[in-house]
Amino acid sequence: GSRLTMEDISAELAQASLDALPGAQAVEVLLWNEERRLLAPQAALGFRDQRSILQITLLPGESVSGRAFQQGAPRRLASVDPNRDFDMRPDNQELYRLATDGRFPAVVLCAPLLAGDRALGVLAISNFKDAEAFDDADLELAASLARQAAAAHENARLYAEAQRDALQLEALTNISRTITSSLRTDQVIGSLLLEM
Questions:
Q1: pLDDT tens digit sequence for 172-195
Q2: N or C, where is the chain less crowded by C-beta within 10 Å?
Q3: Are the C-beta atoms of residues 81 and 90 closer than 8 Å to each other?
Q4: Quick one: angle between helices 185-195 and 136-181, nearest 10?
Q5: Given CA atoms 104, 105, 111, 113 in this order, what sign does their dihedral have?
Q6: H or E stretch including 120?
Q7: Total-model pTM
Q8: Which pairs with CB-CB distance under 8 Å and at least 24 residues apart come from 29-32?
Q9: Whole-number pLDDT of residue 183
């Protein structure tokens, strides 16, 4: 059957956030990459230069999104101070300026994607014109969308894991069947090599 991928879920979350929050002008979804130990962008909408925003990877605690991920709590940040709230590595600052034509948001909503107490990523929603564009109800809605996406991400991960386990079990079963059905050593070794 056809299952949603992490990329599909992230794209759906970005679109749902733009659709559900009238004040949303730009949305970004970043997911935790355990191997690289950073937040990697999965989806972005509403930025002037999509390619640039999708190149920005964040460390936990870096910028407003990295802090929301690290703290594991949704937050609304009005009266954005670029030096304090978008404190990024120099290459990221340049990419962000390209993505936004040098503008910084007036207000940002950040909601971590949590599966239990494990942070999977973060949803960041920006308005560049009006610091009052989002209220507490909008923050709760963003957090709710992030929770739903986190559950979908976790389900997709578990499904992929179950598929891998099933394939491994099938391979082991075939190997076992080959061993038990053949008494000739040279045939067993040849068949095992074909199974691998």
A1: 777 777 777 665 666 777 777 887
A2: N
A3: no
A4: 160
A5: negative
A6: strand 118-127
A7: 0.80
A8: 29/113, 29/121, 29/122, 29/123, 29/124, 29/149, 30/57, 30/58, 30/65, 30/69, 30/121, 30/122, 30/124, 31/6, 31/113, 31/120, 31/121, 31/153, 32/69, 32/119, 32/120, 32/121
A9: 56
